[in-house]
Structures are given as structure tokens and as C-alpha cells.
């Protein structure tokens, strides 16, 4: 990401922050609309707490854009946890579409092509880190299972 993209993301996040609760509610409604299969991931989830977690995670990521080492480590952990929840690779695309749509709705005229590009870049970076960590977790899990069943009894 360029310094200007980081600035745009931070600036527009600060614009969304005062209405963040409504924005996160809008995000989940949009996510469930465009990818109904994601709803089952939240069956046993207290959604008020989940909305707060999403806001905290986004704030952490945005504030960590200048600390790539700390950001990557934490986002990798998040990706591994999401693999454990059953999140599929394709669902990252749905989340990205819902997030960008929500930001566009919330920012209105401030959603410029440059802002859209900056947010697309940041989401692509974060979801890429999560996807890679999730794939590695899946491979490691498969190897453990294979090793367990390949042992002589």
C-alpha cells in the first residue's frame, strides 16, 4: 500500500467511526444477503459481541498499517482461527464485497475511486494474509490426520 492509500483508509475510517455500529449491522445484513451460506457460521454467535469484535479488528488493522510485522502476525492468527470456524476461501470474497459496499453506503460522496482503490487494496492485503494462514493451517491439520492414520496399530 502506498502512504496515500493508508492515509485515505485512515481518514475514511474516521468518518465511518461515529456510525460504526450501524455500519457493522449493515455489513452483516449485506453479507448474509449476498452469501446466505455465511449465516450458518454465526449460528451460535452473540451478534452484538461479534459486531464489536469486527470493529476492533478493523480498527487494529487500520492502526497497524505502519507496523507490518505486528499486523501480519495478528492477521495470520485471525486467519487460522477462521479456518477453524469453517470459513471457506470463497467467503473471503463475499466479506470483501459486503465490506466495500458498506463503506460505499456509509461514505456517500466521500467514496471516490481513490478511496475505493485504497480500501480494495487494504482488504486484499488482509484477506490474502488470512487466506494463506488458513491454507497452511489446513495443510498442517491434514498432515496430522494422515500421520495418525498411517501409524501401524
General description of the model:
This protein has 153 residues and is mainly alpha-helical. Helix content is 79%, strand content 0%. The chain has six helices and no strands. The N and C termini lie far apart (53 Å).
Beta-strand segment tally: 0
Multimerization state: single chain
Q: What is the helix tally?
A: 6
Uncertain stretches of 5 or more adjacent residues: 142-147
The overall pLDDT average reads 89
Determine the N-to-C terminus distance.
53 Å
Characterize the biggest β-sheet. none
Strand proportion: under 5%
- Considering DSSP H and I runs of 4 or more, what fraction of the residues is helical? over 70%
The rounded Rg comes to 17 Å
The rough form would be described as globular
- SS-derived structural category: mainly alpha
What is the string of helix and strand elements?
HHHHHH
Amino acid at each position: 500500500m502506498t502512504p496515500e492509500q493508508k492515509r485515505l483508509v485512515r481518514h475514511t475510517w474516521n468518518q465511518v467511526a461515529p456510525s460504526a455500529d450501524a455500519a457493522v449491522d449493515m455489513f452483516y445484513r449485506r453479507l448474509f444477503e449476498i452469501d446466505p451460506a455465511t449465516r450458518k457460521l454465526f449460528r451460535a454467535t452473540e451478534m452484538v459481541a461479534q459486531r464489536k469484535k469486527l470493529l476492533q479488528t478493523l480498527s487494529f488493522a487500520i492502526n497497524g498499517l505502519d507496523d507490518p510485522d505486528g499486523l501480519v502476525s495478528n492477521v495470520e492468527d485471525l486467519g487460522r482461527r477462521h479456518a477453524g470456524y469453517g470459513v471457506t476461501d470463497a467467503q473471503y470474497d463475499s466479506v470483501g464485497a459486503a465490506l466495500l459496499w458498506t463503506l460505499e453506503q456509509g461514505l456517500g460522496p466521500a467514496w471516490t475511486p481513490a478511496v475505493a482503490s485504497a480500501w480494495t487494496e487494504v482488504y486484499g492485503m488482509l484477506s490474502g494474509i488470512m487466506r494463506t494462514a488458513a491454507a497452511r493451517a489446513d495443510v498442517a491439520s491434514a498432515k496430522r490426520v494422515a500421520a495418525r492414520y498411517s501409524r501401524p496399530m
